[in-house]
Amino acid sequence: MFNRIRRMLVKEFLQMLRDPRMRVVIFGVPVIQMTVMAFALTTDVMNIRTAVLDMDKTPVSRELIAEFTAANYFAIVEYLRSESELTPLLDRGEVRAVLRIPAGFGGELHAGRTADFQVITDGTDSNSTAIALGYAGMIVNAFNDRKQSERQALKGLTTPVVQIATVSRAWFNANQESRFYYVPSLIAVMLFIFSLILTSIGIVREKEIGTIEQVMVTPIRGLEFILGKTIPYMLTGYVSMTLMLAVAWLVFDVRVAGSLPLLYLLSGIYLAGNMGLALIISGSAATQQQALLTSFLVLMPSVMLSGFLFPINNMPDAVRYATVFNPMRWYLEILRGIVMKDVDVTVLWPSIAAQSALALSFLAIAAARFKKTLS
Amino acid sequence: MPKSPLPTADAPAAPDKAMTQERLATGNRPAIDARGLVKTFGGVTAVNDLTFQVYPGEIFGLVGPDGAGKTTTLRLLASIMDPDAGSAAITGCDVGTESARVKDHLAYMSQRFGLYQDLTVGENIEFYADIYGVARKGRQERVGELLDFSHMRPFIGRRAGDLSGGMKQKLQLICALIHTPQVLLLDEPTNGVDPVSRRDFWRILHRLLQAGVAILITTAYLDEAERCNRVALLDHGRILASGTPDEIKGLMSGRLLTIRSNRSREITALLRDRTSAASVNVFGDTVHLVCPDIDRTTGEARQLLERAGIGWERFGESQPSLEDVFVSVLGTGKSGPGLPGHAAAFTPPPSPVGEGIAVGVEHLTRRFGSFVAVDDIGFRVRRGEIFGFLGPNGAGKSTTIRMLCGLLRPTSGSGTVAGFDIFRQAEQIKGHIGYMSQKFSLYEDLRVEENIDFYGGIYGLAGDRLARRKDWALEMAGLADHRASLTAILSGGWKQRLALACAILHEPPIIFLDEPTSGVDPLSRRRFWDLIYTMADQGITVFVTTHYMEEAEYCDRLALIYGGRMIAAGSPLELKTTHMQEEIIDLRCPEPYPLIEPLLSLPGVRDAALFGAGLHVVTADAARTQSAITRLLEEMDIGGTTMTVIMPAMEDVFISLIEEVDRQAAAHRPEKGRS
User: Fold this and answer.
1) Which fold does the domain B18-249 belong to in CATH?
2) How far separated are the first and last CA of chain B, in Å rounded?
3) ipTM value for the complex
4) Where does chain B hold its CATH 3.40.50.300 domain(s)?
5) Is A320 a residue whose pLDDT tops 70?
6) Domain with CATH 3.30.70.920 in chain B
7) Of A311, A356, B178, B498, whose CB neighbour count within 10 A is largest?
8) Number of residue pairs across A and B with CB atoms under 8 Å?
9) Which chain B residue shows the shortest CA-CA distance from A372?
10) C-alpha to C-alpha distance for B134 and B121, rounded to whole angstroms
11) Cα–Cα distance for residue pair B216/B449, rounded to 1 Å
12) pLDDT at position A175
């Protein structure tokens, strides 16, 4: 038995490592893609191109504008003279936000009345719009507070107005930098994509060439064949995971906060589940093309509904329940838990249980469907 | 080119080549004119300084082993590939500079199917008519003519993917002919096609020749090559010899002595290296000796046989076939793998098969949906027998062999292999058989040695035994010097021997070979059969499928399979003597094709068809027909003919049986025509 599996492994590794293109695909591409995407994927919004339409032109209005320029969030690139210039600018996408200060703004404030101030944003990119509006709100609040205290000081009132001060602190990611969130998630995505595609294609290729027929008439057992075909991809999965963790640390300064052995153990379960899925895919595909297409059909929803890009809690109930069957969802929770939060099994056990159950079922289905016959 | 006394393609005006000479005299320009063509692929010269001409109305055959450069030559002429040096012209247009005009005058049929499997026969034809820009006016007449001539009209609404191999080839030929080309390039067009379809195919070709089309054909069937006006023998991209088939046959150094006996394999073993013969080869029940001095060898052989007490049915000189020449010209000077002495290292382990039946099946049936691939077949194979499964592509041969190997579950019926039940004990069977699939079974990206290690390992071989078997396999495949070569770079013959070696590393008592020699050149085929004989001599049962009629004659016993049904079984001799009521007259004449129609109209003639370079006339009464033919030939003033009543060849038997089956099928389903 071990001799046969060993021969399968030797053969697989020889085939895998002989082709220079395959070496690049297995070890280079996941790391490169993860690095590039980690740089590209960021929700941090800075230097929003902004235009100002100041129809008030008072010291107060200039003061407010100065508040906006002081923070790094808004970069004022245009000063408009009339209302009519506003629309073309947004249409062409030259600015993403416009600060509109109506005439009489300063006067109203001075008179102690509420003054209107408008922030217009380009809503086509709803995510950054929301963030920009958030920043604008913060700036205006700070401005309000200052004006309030100035007025009180002017009136000679010494007792300040009672206020609640919010002191917010983001744990596990003090600066709320998105790379801490995306870098580990990208590792999960890359492992999923590459283990699924490479394994399913590796098996279907033998069908396509016809070698599987020759192997199936030998006394090799189904399990031996499955192990021989999947163990190499498990191992390469581990290798590329290690490479990606190294990049995360060296390039993005994202360190594994929790236990490395636990991370490796649980990643093994994840990879094994992916192998099961790949086997199921390869069972139904006759050509490498079909295997690739089927893999993509599985990949897209798995990535989208994993909580990688969109929080699962915000999804409609039906979809949220469906994500229970998404192995990537559980692995993301585990990965973020260990890498960012340094939590252990006592916290992660529901995810671990779900992930293990999924992996076992995939493998069981694959083993049941795998027959040593061609029909 | 090496200096040789052989006539080369540069000098086609051989004295007896009247047709060519006449054309040259009338200033007829060649339809295909290749001059000094060279093509190299990464250091390997595929085509090396190739020069030849093909004239309108002439069929020119390119024969040679795998990798000789046949396909590359056709691609260069079809202007799909650019030559590295030299030039070629099709009907006077240069393939390099005027490729658009070349394509108007040329049709090229590659080995791969150029058909759209999901379109019907009619839709495929329409598609090709459109891309060749065939005018709508007159198109239907042209299509109708082609359909009728190829007997394809009944299938016009059928999906191309559902056609049999032979019909696909005919459809492809129709598509290629739709724009009435002046030059036709055919790359192994009849490979794997059943003999009936092959006859149809050649009939179409002859009609084209009469219309003045020039045809260049590559073929692995040397009997087809004999029908060509001229033949070029290609090896390593060079023309070794070219000329009429008769001229080529004259190249064999020495004369041919043949001995027919039911103990032909023993005779071969006895005579090999013990006489003055240059080579001793077995072709089924006949041993061929190429003799530099035929009288001396005759004496020696006679003496050896008498001393050993082996009798024979026929002993004497024969005309060499093109295959004999092919083997004798190409078979010398090459490293000769597969020598029987080496393969003898095969020592089968004690097997549960015993003396009795190695493979036995009854009422075996396999359906795929509503399609019955194998329909109620039954046979028994004795231990140590070479059992042949003969039939065209798609007849159900592979399906049967897969059921026997435990790769497919039969739908119904029963059977045992090596004493194990094919339903319940498929896994036990796998330990006791060797199987070589039709599809390529080696890992191309592994080295030769690594393939052997892999298959040895999964057959459970290790340590000393693996090392011993590996040495044996390398020696048997003749790859001892290439153990570290990548499998991908080996030629077809080597790969096939390596695949066989890998399939029998574990010394199984039964070996299943599914079309082992398909697409392999005659020389490699001959060597492969030597291996099979050696194994059979050691008591190993060999179950082999083939669509080569002449290979069927090499088997001890045969089952003929057609449309999923077994239509006959027995030894080659039994099949020829009991399944053919009619007699066969072998008629050799200079221009056989125009004689077919007049011959068919003679009373008593059941069929007349091309066979090799001559004709086979099927008749109920040979004596009467012979005198009728003699009169006919006198009337038509045709001389230089020979006529002999012969034992039918396997192809005659097979065609006669297939036609019988088709007649019965047609009687049940009147709407269907002959395929």
Assistant:
1) Rossmann fold (3.40.50)
2) 45
3) 0.71
4) 18-249, 357-570
5) yes
6) 581-647
7) B498
8) 92
9) B407
10) 17
11) 40
12) 64
Assigned CATH for B357-570: 3.40.50.300
Domains of chain A (ranges plus CATH)? 2-41+177-369 (no CATH), 48-155 (3.40.1710.10)
Of A234-238, B1-5, B25-29, highest mean pLDDT: A234-238
Range(s) of chain B covered by CATH 3.30.70.2470: 255-319
| Residue A232 DSSP class | H
**Nearest neighbour of B439 by CB, restricted to A19, A213, A215:** A213
pLDDT tens per residue across span B541-571: 999 988 888 788 888 899 998 888 998 999 8
Judge whether B282 and B187 are in contact, CB under 8 Å: no
pLDDT at A266: 93
Any B CB within 8 A of A220 CB: yes
Chain A residues within 8 A of B442 when measuring between CB atoms: 211
What is the CATH architecture assignment of B255-319? Answer: 2-Layer Sandwich (3.30)
Q: What is the pLDDT of residues A128-166, one digit of tens each?
A: 788 888 888 888 888 888 887 887 777 776 665 566 766
A209 and B439 within 8 Å at the Cβ level: the answer is: yes
Residue range B581-647, CATH number: 3.30.70.920
Q: How confident is the model at residue B61 (pLDDT cuts 50, 70, 90)?
A: very high
Chain B hits for A209, CB-CB cut-off 8 Å, are 439-440, 443-444
Band the pLDDT of A360: cuts 50, 70, 90.
Answer: very high
Q: Widest CA span of chain B, in angstroms? A: 76
Contact B443 A374 (CB under 8 A): no
- B498: left (phi > 0), else alpha (psi -120 to 50), else beta? alpha
**Best residue of A4, A12, A205, A211 to probe chain B, by most B CBs closer than 10 Å:** A211
Indicate the pairing of strand A118-121 with strand A97-101: antiparallel
CB contact under 8 A, B440 and A8: no
Q: What is the DSSP letter of B310?
A: -
Q: Do the Cβ atoms of B408 and A373 come within 8 Å? A: yes
A208 to chain B, closest Cα gap in Å = 9
For B512, name the nearest residue in chain A, comparing CA atoms only.
A217
Do residue A219 and residue B427 have CB atoms under 8 angstroms apart? yes
Structural tokens at position B109: 């049929």
Residue A221 clears pLDDT 80, i.e. is over it: yes
With cut-offs at 50, 70 and 90, classify the pLDDT of residue A174: low
